[in-house]
Amino acid sequence: MKNDSQRIVITGIGLTSPLGNNLAELREGLLNGRSGIVHTEIRHMGVVAAGLCRFDETKHQSKKMRKRGTRAGAISVYCTKEALIDSGIDFDSTDRARVGVYLGITEHGNVETENEIHDLYNTHNKDVSFWSHHHNPRTVANNPAGEVTLNLGITGPHYTIGAACAAGNLGIIQGVQQLLLDEVDLAFAGGISESTETFGIFAAFKAQGALGHHEDPTLATRPMDVDRNGIVVSEGGAVYVLERLSDAKKRNAKIYGEIIGYHSNSDASDFVLPNTERQIECMKYAMKKAGIEPSEIDIVNMHATGTNQGDIQECQAVAGLFKDCKTTYVNATKGFIGHAMGAAGALELAGNIPSFTDGYIHPCKKIEKLDPDCAIPNLVNGEKIAHDVKIILNNSFGMLGINSTLILKKYS
Questions:
Q1: Regarding beta strands 236-244 and 158-162, do their DSSP bridges make them parallel or antiparallel, or are they unpaired?
Q2: pLDDT lower than 70: segments of the chain
Q3: This model's pTM is above 0.90
C-alpha cells in the first residue's frame, strides 16, 4: 500500500487547443461534437486543413520576451501559467529550486529555421549578416521548457522530452518519476507543439500520402472511417501541475485525479508503421504497474490518427485486450482537434478528465462508415454517453516505434 508521499496527483491544468484555451472550452467542444479544424494557407503548400490555436501570446509575458522567443515557448508559457493559476499554489512562497519543468515535444526549431531561411533567400539576398542572433536559443531543443523557467523564475531542472507523438504522455511520466525520486516537490509536465507553423511537416505527410484533406475541413481527418485519408496537423499544448498527494493534502488542493500507472516501450520494427503486439505490451505493463485488470478501465482513449494502417493496428491492439470488458468504452479525440503531435497525449487526457465529475464519456467524431478492420466493442461513436468513470487509460504512439500509456484514477 502506497503512502501519500508515493502517490502523485494532478492539481492544475492549463491548455490551449483548436477547441479553446481552457479545460471547460475543450470539454464543451468534445461533448457536443464540435470540430476545431479549419482551412488555412501554408507557405509552399497552399490551403490545407489544420487545427489552430487562438490565445493571447502576451497574456503572461511581455511583448519583448515574446519577440525574442518562439511560438512553442509562447504556448508553453501560456499553458504553464494557466495551470499554475488553476492549481491555486502560492508560488511566491514556493522554493523554485525544487520546481521542475518537463515538456514533451515532437520536434523543435523547424519553425524558426524555416522562417529565417525564407527571409535569407527572399528578403536579404543570402546575406547572412541578417541572420537572427536569437537563432540558437530559439532552436535548441530545451527552448519550450526553458522559456517557462525564464518566465516564472524557476531554478530547478527543465528539459524537453523528444518522443514524437508519444511525447505528451512522456512529459507527464517524467514529471511523475522526478517527484517519486524526490528530485523536485512540484512539476509542470505535459506536451506542446507549434507544428502548424512549419510547412515541412505538411509537405512530409503529403509526400507520404498521409495528409488528410477534404473540401470541408472538418472532414479532413476521419479516424477509423473507411474514407479516411490521413492526418490533420494541429498545434496546442497541455501542462499539468503534479504534486505528491501528501503536499496536495496539506494545502487542501483541488485534485483532478491520481496517476496510478504508466509505461513506455519501443516497437523496434519500422520507422513509421506501428506494431500491434508492442502496443498491447505497453498497455499491459501500465496496468500491471497500476495493479488493475483490463475490466477495471472505464475509458480507453485511442491515439487514432486517421491513417489507414495506423488505425487498423491500434484497433487490433485495443480490441484484443478489451474485447471481453463489458464496461470499458473506447473514444478518440483527433477527429475534433487534429493531431497535435507532441501535445496530443496531454491534450487528449485533459479532454477526458472531466468525465470523473460530469459523468459523461465524450465520443469519437461521428464515423459514418466504420472500417471493418477497426471494429471495436463499446466504441463511443458520434454521441456522448453517461457513465460513472473511475479509471482512464490514455494511449499515445509515435514514429520510430515509441509507445506510451498513462492511467489516471478518480481521486477519492
A1: unpaired
A2: none
A3: yes
